[in-house]
Write a structure and sequence with these properties.
Oligomer: single chain
Strand content: 5-15%
Number of helices: 11
Largest sheet: 8 strands, mixed
Number of domains: 3
Helix content: 40-55%
CATH topology of the largest domain: Butyryl-CoA Dehydrogenase, subunit A, domain 3
């Protein structure tokens, strides 16, 4: 009988140092009062924050091998960055560029675009609907003699991208093509989304010129990108929920009603205690998903399905409790609680709903 592998879910010193750097950057460059302006008209430009995060801290190339100019890190380090993005509701295209597009290109064998992504001089987006779950069929747009033709809705990161990584339905199966964002025949139309800190757009191709990456079929490359995205999104949901809990706990210790702090009331204590227990479970699920993804463990698909099925609900619950337990101030536009509720609800639909992941989990463990 083979020995049972034991995952190390604790954060390493390197991961903690990375966390400190990313958290400090967000605290300095996109505090909550600044992120609220993502809902202004016109919205605030946060491209400078992304350039600092990508180039100066080097997080854009975490998953890119050192031979291509990246850090050669793993999904564990990516998950730490995602935690801090969730904690700050940071409006940066890290998930769409440094995770989805990067993993797809890496698995397809690209060597031309990845160095630019690692340096932070190029931003990319994988052209699939953000709601696509790992294992879902990818239709892909069409490719002909005059270029790429077709449309894809609700694509994350397309507005900020310099290049678009496009799954294309080829003669021998799914192909992966690169299309310049500003090329002729490309139209990127921003759509009104619940969470404006992670902009979505409809992408339309009308005979757009493209360059093919690797050989077909590219199904495995796209599938792995979606799997990695789902695995690390759980860490963003964890960071989001942790902020909501910490902030609500601090408020309950200070806010007084009828001469007592509201945290001294038993009903409030019980709600916070229940949330703390849920957070601990979410931490274990998110860390295990990141670790199995990083090590290529055979349990990785199961871990990602469990993490998404559980963490997405915890994040929404934590955000709802944050709004409700803050009372009147929690409902105001100026207080950042609504940012977290919107991101939590948006994340709940990304890469498939909770039901979709539970159904996938049942398939993975052969549960009828």
């Amino acid at each position: 009988m083979s020995p049972v592998s034991r995952a190390d879910l604790l954060y390493s010193d390197t991961e903690e140092a990375l966390r400190d750097s990313v958290r400090q950057l967000f605290a300095d460059r996109c505090p909550a009062e600044s992120v609220v302006k993502a809902y202004s008209s016109p919205p605030q430009d946060f491209s400078g924050v992304w350039r600092l995060l990508a180039a100066e801290l080097g997080v854009a190339g975490l998953l890119v091998p050192e031979s291509l100019g990246g850090a050669g890190a793993t999904a564990r380090e990516v998950a730490v960055v995602m935690e801090e993005i969730g904690r700050a509701v940071a409006p940066v295209p890290f998930l769409s560029s440094a995770v989805l597009a990067t993993v797809a290109l890496l698995r397809a064998g690209d060597t031309d675009t990845l160095p630019g992504l690692a340096e932070g001089t190029v931003t990319a987006a994988l052209v699939v609907p953000l709601s696509t779950a790992p294992g879902d069929a990818i239709a892909g747009v069409d490719s002909g003699a005059d270029g790429v033709t077709g449309g894809v809705s609700s694509v994350a990161g397309a507005v900020e991208a310099d290049v678009l990584v496009v799954p294309v339905a080829g003669r021998d199966g799914l192909e992966l093509h690169i299309v310049a964002r500003d090329a002729a025949g490309v139209e990127v139309s921003p759509v009104l989304a619940l969470d404006m800190t992670r902009p979505l757009a409809d992408v339309q191709f009308s005979g757009a010129p493209s360059s093919r990456v690797g050989a077909s079929p590219a199904d495995a490359a796209v599938r792995e990108a979606l799997h990695t995205g789902a695995a690390v999104l759980a860490s963003e949901q964890l960071g989001l929920a942790q902020w909501c809990f910490d902030t609500t706990l601090a408020y309950a210790k200070e806010r007084k009603q009828f001469g007592r702090t509201i945290g001294s009331y038993q009903a409030i204590k019980h709600r916070l205690a229940d949330l703390w227990i849920a957070l601990n479970s979410a931490t274990a699920a998110a860390r295990y998903a990141a670790d199995t993804c990083a090590t290529g463990d055979a349990d990785a698909p199961v871990a990602a399905a469990i993490a998404q099925a559980y963490c997405s609900g915890v994040a929404v619950h934590a955000a709802e409790e944050c709004v409700q337990l803050h009372g009147g101030i929690g409902m105001t536009w100026e207080y950042p609680a609504h940012l977290y509720l919107k991101r939590a609800k948006s994340d709940q639909l990304a890469f498939g709903t909770e039901y979709r992941h539970r159904a996938r989990l049942a398939e993975l463990v052969d549960l009828r």
